[in-house]
Amino acid sequence: MHNYAYLMKTVADYGQAWKTIGTDLQYMVKDRVLFLQPTSSNHDWKKNFQFIQVPYKCGSKTLWVHKGFLDVYLEGRELFLKLLQDGVVDTVCGFSHGSALATILYWEYFMRHGIKIPTVVFGSPRVCNTISAIVYRKMFDELINLQMGADIVSSVPPVIFFYMHVGIIVGIETGYLIPLPRYHRPEVYLEHINILLT
């Protein structure tokens, strides 16, 4: 597994050689890692706020997920599954919007192949319905979910909408108390991850 600082720095670098698939889904393959980019357009923002939950089936299994994130994931699904199956990548990393896509990919790949792909997500919104998150809790034990204190994105969609985080939650203490958008910035994450690792 690559170190957190490297993954965070790379996934948040808009100067990298990102590729676009579908309407507006940015991804990059580097050092055998599939990176999924955060929100980068109005199209992404519209999808982010589609809080309705829909069922996503894989064989006889169903995961209830955020509709907007699922719509975007499906645009890159075939390529991402192939990159994993062909061994081109062995790790997945996402930030913000990209974290949500990485979470769905993790679930589907396990359902299809019984393999838990090492996955690291930063500043992820909630993606899964509460009941689905509980049912598949043990399956998500190779997904590391890093969340910084007061990151407003990690607090949405609200739990009152029956959403729940999945994976191994790693809290990054910052001393910030009030959730604000500025605490979701990549450079703020990187600063506190570097502190965490020293």
Tell me what you see in this structure.
- With 198 residues, the protein is of the alpha/beta class.
- The protein has one domain (4-197): Rossmann fold.
- It is 35% helix and 25% strand.
- The chain is built from six helices and eleven strands.
- It has a seven-stranded mixed sheet, with helices on both faces. The chain has a two-stranded antiparallel sheet with strand order 4-5.
- Strand 2 and strand 3 (33-36) form a beta hairpin.
- Helix 2 (42-48) crosses helix 3 and helix 3 crosses helix 4 (97-113).
- The radius of gyration is 15 Å and the shape is globular.
- The relative contact order is 0.16.
- The model has no long low-confidence stretch (mean pLDDT 91).
Features:
single chain; 198 residues; alpha/beta; Rossmann fold; seven-stranded mixed β-sheet; two-stranded antiparallel ribbon; 11 strands
Summarize the structure.
With 198 residues, the chain is of the alpha/beta class. The protein has helices at residues 4-11, 42-48, 67-85, 97-113, 130-135, 186-197, and strands at 19-21, 25-30, 33-36, 53-58, 61-66, 91-95, 119-122, 128-129, 143-148, 163-164, 168-172. It has a single domain, classed as Alpha/Beta hydrolase fold, catalytic domain (Rossmann fold, 3-Layer(aba) Sandwich), CATH 3.40.50.1820.
Topology overview:
Layout lengths: L3 H8 L7 E3 L3 E6 L2 E4 L5 H7 L4 E6 L2 E6 H19 L5 E5 L1 H17 L5 E4 L5 E2 H6 L7 E6 L14 E2 L3 E5 L13 H12 L1
Parallel strand pairs: 3-6, 6-7, 7-9, 9-11
Antiparallel strand pairs: 1-2, 2-3, 4-5, 8-10
Helix content: 25-40%
Summarize the biggest pleated sheet.
7 strands, mixed
Would you identify the CATH architecture? 3-Layer(aba) Sandwich
CATH-derived topology: Rossmann fold
- Total number of helices: 6
- Give the DSSP E fraction (strand runs of 2 or more residues): 15-25%
Number of domains: 1
What is the straight-line distance between the termini? Answer: 18 Å
What gross morphology would you assign?
globular
Q: What would you report as the Rg, rounded to the nearest angstrom?
A: 15 Å
CATH C-level name: Alpha Beta
Helix and strand pattern? HEEEHEEHEHEEHEEEH
Q: Structural class of the helix and strand makeup?
A: alpha/beta
The whole-number mean of residue pLDDT values reads 91
**Spatial order of strands in the largest sheet:** 1-2-3-6-7-9-11
Q: CATH H-level name... which superfamily? A: Alpha/Beta hydrolase fold, catalytic domain
Give the number of DSSP strands: 11
Uncertain residue segments: none
